[in-house]
Design a protein that fits this description.
Sodium/glucose cotransporter, 464 residues, 0% strand, single chain
């Protein structure tokens, strides 16, 4: 058996064992959904950073570095900027509301602040979008394992999906937080070593002078592309349900600020690594069939054997740690926001625990199926983040900081902004109108609708 296969097999069994071990303390729905609200700053930092450094931040961002050079920093860097705003403002405030009202999901908050209808609409929009992003986390894992181990794509998708479903199903956020700490150590060690060896040791950046225009510019050859990253990713990382629901598990507001802000700084520093690795890959392999092969080729052809296993495990960690964050969002949304809200409102904690675990398995299988047939990573992630930012950002922020918005205003904002984004996308083949992206049009529409609504309504309900 290949030593790479052995290393991944042992590592996967270890992760699942951690999930099983921590599941022994999961007795209530609160333990599964919000880890009993006991997460320290370190655990919160670890589970957030492990979730954020996934397919888009590694394989996808390296592909952007291969195509656009150093300006690829903005893909992960924008996520870091959004996370910093989250840690300093929205995160602690949302934690206090969740603690006081015993909320488990963002859907719980939307119903508390607005109505069941707002909760249901957002849940449906994000559930289908989240399946795509779950598949997007598994696709690069399949490519990498296919190239390095010769495993067929569908087998690799199934293998990665099985690992994350097993350890998440055991214990929800309780087990995920512990497993993520292990993944984070492996992930950062592998990528930092790979970065030092590939970029510094081999001097692969020495030939980028022959690269395309804007390769060494912070804003690349098209500043509108950078604005597109910024306008989609910054809001998405401020209000992402997958991140906010992890924040609900913090032990206090101080843990939220420390854990989230440290995660934000780490993201902004890490953002240099895939951008520079992509530039190195362009110098070494200027004729790749697809930019998403840049990272796998570097791992296979530019690293000594002794670090290959660690780097492969780091990539494996990157994909499945983000996949568990998406699975967490899918599971809590379907079980709490749809099942308990509309099907069995009086469900017991044990019933909800069982439904959550069944949902995790079903969502994981659906993600594996999509990953086996969908080819592209960044496109899938962009679609999800666009829907997330356009539909949720303005209603959530307005409701959190003002007493004026009501359910009708929130529903109008969600429906109007998503409709405008879709129409602009269809009318421009995704290119935007007047140099403005569909997502920017959508968010702008949301701001206008909500502002008009608030101008004509006085506050009638506390924001929490």
């Amino acid at each position: 058996m290949s030593p790479y296969v052995t290393a991944l097999l042992v590592y996967s069994i270890f992760l699942m064992a951690i999930g099983w071990w921590t599941s022994r303390s999961v007795r209530r729905a609160e333990d599964f959904f919000v880890a009993g609200r006991r997460l320290s700053p370190a655990l919160l930092f670890g589970t957030l950073l492990a979730a954020n450094l996934g397919a888009g931040s590694t394989v996808g961002a390296t592909g952007l570095g291969y195509t656009h050079g150093i300006s690829a920093w903005w893909w992960v860097g924008s996520a870091g900027i959004g996370s910093l705003i989250l840690g300093l403002t929205v995160g602690p405030r949302m934690w206090r509301v969740a603690k006081e009202q015993n909320l488990y999901t963002v859907g719980d908050y939307l119903e508390h602040r607005y109505s069941r209808g707002v909760r249901g609409l957002i849940a449906v929009l994000l559930w289908f979008g989240s399946l795509a992003i779950l598949a997007g986390q598994l696709i690069p894992l399949a490519w990498i394992l296919n190239l390095t181990l010769g495993i067929p794509k569908y087998v690799a998708c199934l293998a990665g999906g099985a690992v994350v479903v097993v350890y998440f199903t055991f214990g929800g956020l309780t087990s995920t937080a512990r497993v993520n700490m292990v993944q984070l150590v492996v992930k950062l060690s592998g990528f930092i070593l790979a970065f030092l060896l590939i970029v510094s040791g081999a001097g692969l950046l020495s030939g980028v002078s022959a690269a395309p225009t804007g390769f060494e510019s912070w804003f690349g050859d098209d500043p509108s592309r950078i604005w597109g990253y910024f306008i989609v990713l910054v809001p998405a990382f401020i209000i992402s349900p997958g991140l906010l629901q992890k924040i609900y598990g913090a032990r206090d507001a101080r843990a939220v600020r420390q854990g989230v802000c440290t995660n934000a700084v780490a993201l902004m520093l890490f953002a240099f690594i895939p951008a520079l690795l992509g530039m190195a890959a362009y110098h070494a392999f200027p004729s790749l069939d697809t930019p998403d092969l840049a990272l796998p080729r570097l791992l296979m052809d530019a690293l000594p054997f002794w670090i290959g296993g660690l780097t492969l495990a780091a990539v494996f960690s990157a994909e499945i740690s983000s996949a568990d964050a998406v699975l967490f969002m899918l599971t809590t949304s379907l079980s709490r926001d749809l099942y308990q809200t509309y099907i069995e409102p009086g469900a017991s904690e044990q019933r909800m625990l069982a439904v959550s675990r069944i949902t995790a398995v079903g969502a994981g299988l659906a993600g594996v199926v999509l990953a086996a047939v969908l080819p592209d990573v960044i496109t899938a992630l962009t679609i999800f983040y666009s829907i997330l930012s356009v539909a949720l950002f303005v209603p959530l922020i307005a409701g959190l900081y003002s007493t004026r918005p009501n359910a009708n205003g929130a529903l109008a904002t969600i429906a109007g902004s998503v409709l405008v984004m879709i129409l602009v996308h269809l009318g421009s083949n995704g290119g935007g109108l007047a140099g403005i992206s569909p997502a920017t049009w959508g968010i702008g529409t949301a701001v206008v609708i909500m502002a008009l609504h608030m101008l004509y309504r006085r506050g009638t309900r506390p924001a929490g």
